[in-house]
């Protein structure tokens, strides 16, 4: 479809008729007439049967006036700025921003999960579960924070899911240090969601860890207050086998405590209207992400865009071509 951006400019099409109807003809090119550059050159242009100004032939005069009016027509058309506008194209714009805050401390190397009958470490199990979750949210913006001793924003919330997945799969346990700064990670996530101006109805954080807050400058009560102020819902996931046994020096299996601070994780989730989950195997972890996916459906807000293309240069080129041809014809003596 073709339209014009400034339709009022088309009113200028009538200007030559108004001027010709109500103004008195100039008797000559001298006296009180307004002088403009190249006026004498324009006055001497001859097209076919005579001068543009004061042609002795009425037919030639009308023809020359018509040619100049065509140039004026195309100039007015260009000033109206014609546009080609395509059909409306639907795009999806999510109302949710989901930030994955994932523990990659050294303890995530623990190979107490399994996948397809093979032992895998905790971080690999997290990657598998999070991969499916991210791919299942095509209309949401997803971000990623990785933390250990320090917290690092790897990707702000974005529609580029593949970039987030590439970063996640390239991660190794221990890259961010040995300890676990949960408070700093959550605090960094809250800052990112605020800076990104996320929707107040769709700010969600998924915190996954296998430890307790034993490093960093922010405590759990600190970030809990911040999360309430920012209206961010936090889902927390505790990772690790609940009844893990290892062999001792004497060949006797003894229970091992992971040091998971479930009380703090439950509090973070409960007081921000989220949920706490415990994942002790790969299938359980995948079910948790599926449950969060169910609890936080995408807020798919329909928006439409239309492709447009400027066309003003076509009538502008036509007007310039007409004027140029008049000069060329004059030089050749027509």
From TrEMBL:
Matching Gene3D superfamilies: von Willebrand factor, type A domain (3.40.50.410)
InterPro entries: UPF0353/GerABKA_families, VWF_A, vWFA_dom_sf
Endpoints of the signal sequence: none
VWFA domain segment(s): 97-292
Entry superkingdom: Bacteria
Keywords tagged on the record: Membrane, Transmembrane, Transmembrane helix
Keyword presence, Membrane: yes
Ranges annotated as spanning the membrane: 311-329
Protein name: VWA domain-containing protein
Organism listed in the record: uncultured Alphaproteobacteria bacterium
């Amino acid at each position: 479809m073709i339209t014009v951006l400034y339709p009022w400019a088309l009113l200028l099409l009538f200007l030559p008729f108004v001027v010709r109807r109500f103004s008195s003809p100039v008797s000559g090119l001298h006296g009180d007439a307004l002088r403009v550059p190249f006026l004498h050159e324009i006055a001497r242009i001859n097209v076919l049967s005579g001068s543009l100004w004061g042609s002795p032939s009425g037919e030639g005069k009308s023809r020359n006036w018509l040619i100049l009016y065509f140039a004026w027509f195309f100039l007015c058309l260009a000033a109206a700025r014609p546009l080609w506008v395509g059909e409306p194209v639907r795009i999806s714009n999510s109302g949710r921003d989901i930030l994955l805050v994932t523990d990659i401390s050294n303890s995530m190397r623990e190979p107490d999960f399994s996948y397809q009958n093979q032992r895998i470490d905790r971080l690999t199990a997290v990657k598998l579960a999070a991969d499916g979750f991210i791919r299942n949210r095509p209309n949401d913006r997803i971000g990623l924070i990785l933390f250990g001793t320090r917290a690092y924003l790897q990707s702000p919330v974005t529609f580029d899911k593949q970039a987030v997945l590439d970063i996640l799969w390239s991660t190794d346990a221990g890259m961010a240090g040995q300890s676990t700064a949960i408070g700093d990670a959550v605090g960094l996530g809250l800052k990112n969601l605020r800076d990104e101006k996320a929707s107040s109805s769709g700010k969600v954080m998924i915190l996954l860890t296998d430890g307790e807050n034993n490093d960093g400058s922010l405590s759990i009560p600190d970030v809990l207050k911040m999360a309430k102020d920012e209206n961010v819902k936090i889902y927390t996931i505790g990772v690790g086998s609940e009844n893990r046994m290892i062999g001792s020096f004497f060949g006797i299996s003894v229970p091992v405590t992971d040091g998971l601070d479930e009380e703090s994780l439950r509090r973070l989730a409960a007081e921000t209207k989220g949920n706490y989950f415990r994942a002790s195997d790969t299938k359980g972890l995948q079910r948790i992400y599926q449950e969060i996916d169910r609890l936080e459906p995408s807020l798919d807000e329909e928006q439409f865009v239309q492709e447009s293309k400027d066309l003003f240069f076509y009538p502008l080129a036509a007007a310039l071509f007409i004027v140029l041809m008049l000069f060329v014809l004059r030089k050749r003596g027509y």
